[in-house]
Amino acid sequence: MLICILVAISSRGEKLLFKISTGMVLTKLLVVAALGVSMVGMWQSV
What is the DSSP letter of 42? Predict the structure, then answer.
């Protein structure tokens, strides 16, 4: 689903895609980091 959206945006403008994709990557990294920290916390409690 996300890929389809990015493809649709890329067909309209490469610059817009670059800005959005950069934000998406940063957001994903933050989410993954947060999930990783929470998982480690859960493992330690077990």
Answer: H
